[in-house]
Amino acid sequence: MRLTYLAYTFSLVMKYFSIVLIFPAIIALLFKEYTAIHHFLVAAAAIMILASLIKRIVPGAKNIKSINDIKKSEGLTVVTFSWIFAGLFASIPYLFCGITPINALFEAFSGITTTGATALTTFNYPHALLFWRSFTQWLGGMGIIVLFIAVLPQFAIAGRQLFFAEAPGPTEEKFTPRIKSTAAALWKIYAGLTLIEFILLVNCGMDWFTALCHSFSSLSGGGFSPHHTSLIGYSNNILWIITFFMFFAGANFNLQHKAWTKLNPLLLFKNEEFRVYFGVVFVIAILLAGSLFANMHYTFFESITHAFFNVSSLVSSTGFCSVDYAKWDYASKILLFTIMLFGSCASSAGGGLKVTRWLLIFKIMKSEMMKILHPKAVYNIKIGNYTVPKEILYQTLMFVSFYFAFIIISAFLIAFIEKDTIIAVVGSVAAVGNIGPGLGQVIGPMGSFADLTTLTKSILIIDMLAGRLELIPFLVLFQKDLWSFKR
Questions:
Q1: pLDDT tens-digit profile of 337-361?
Q2: Which end of the chain is more exposed for a tag (fewer CB within 10 A), N or C?
Q3: Are 446 and 365 within 8 A, CB to CB?
Q4: What residues does 2 pair with on adjacent strands?
């Protein structure tokens, strides 16, 4: 790898990231929280200083004029370190509000990775900080660097390596000839849906600030709310609006773009992944509604509302709640845990294992069973009309193995530290899947991660970051061959 390219590109990303801190400063100004303004200006200044120092310290970095020939390994490294430092600097405003360093880091990384697990025990903080929590999720949902590719000319050509490093998946999916156009199209549909949700929530009686925070957090699959009770107590109209947008936060944005541009929502159901996603959400929600009606004695409409809301919340890795489901019966919690493992679609804002990978795993299993019956037959595995190459199948198997290995190792370590198996297993699944709250009273929807040890929170921060970068790009950084530098 070329150290000069790494330094130049990383400093460029950090410089532009500092600009986004203007928005919470504006919110502080609107609410006359003048003391909070400097919290964000200090963070922005710290980022700018780092960006300038890196260009000066690394010989030749400031002489780079173009990054059009950046390599895949360099793009991977830049993206990973950009996310790490974005989380570090995003924690600065929390420190000014008296939050401990480990809790500030936990909250910042939970926000930027759209996990939504919180270490806060009170929400008596400036509006600017509560806005920052949701805004970082919105930036992280589609991807900070994807945004820069969409709007900045410096990334017009070089953006390909950065784009697929930040938004990895089973396949490299783009739907326009130029990556810049793809990134711009994704952000248009993402921002457009956010705006529509905001308008609908305001029209249903939610104040503009709360509506804005919830719109940011739901479209990003994040789940941070400016209230400690999340969405408990809100009207059914508001719950169904947010259910709709959480569901589509977990759907493929490339597919949604095609459906919107052609004004044909039926295109969604021509996609195999979306059909499976829709079908699983519908079936689990109906089963959950039946369980709530029979075991928790909710009314029929309450059962349907809470079932679809919370299933959509967890499948899209959002983490909002309409009720404290930690108090539900065992069968209902098993259904919720099942949907936590399922995950959202590829190229969505949601986390988890992803529907496409589940599809491929089951198709590989079916293919292997058919080969036992017909050893000489040749079976091609397809997703829709697309024949999946063998290297993609191998990568999928490797990813699934790493995914569950990561969860198992994290759960083992946390169980040893916390002496609690439920916290260990559910917390690891929630962190690696970027889901947020887990089950149980401690880290459930009404709980907090605040009382966990510093070591446990550190493990969960690593889990959240690895989950957002989809594990393998993160693990590649620990290969010594990657760290062979040249100017």
A1: 999 988 899 888 888 888 988 999 9
A2: C
A3: no
A4: 486
Cα 437 to Cα 321: distance, rounded to the nearest angstrom: 9
H or E segment at 113? none
The type of residue at 413 is L
Does residue 320 have a pLDDT over 60? yes
**Cβ–Cβ < 8 Å for 158, 240:** no
Q: Which helix (H) or strand (E) holds 383?
A: strand 382-383
First to last CA, the chain: 8
Q: How many CA atoms lie within 13 A of 294 on its CB side?
A: 9
* Amino acid letter for position 481: D
Q: Exposed, middle or buried, 86 (CB in 10 Å: 0-12/13-18/19+)?
A: buried
Helical pair 22-30 and 127-142, crossing angle rounded to 10 deg: 150
Report CA torsion sign: 368, 370, 376, 377.
Answer: negative
Q: What angle, rounded to 10 degrees, do the helices at 454-468 and 72-90 form?
A: 140
Specify the pLDDT at position 334. Answer: 94
Q: Cα 360 vs. chain centroid, distance in angstroms?
A: 22
| Token pair belonging to 449 | 């991660």
What is the pTM assigned to this prediction?
Answer: 0.91
Helix (H) or strand (E) holding 387: strand 386-387
The per-residue pLDDT of the chain, averaged, comes to 87
DSSP at 169:
-
C-alpha–C-alpha distance, residues 110 and 133, integer Å: 9
Radius of gyration of the chain (CA): 22
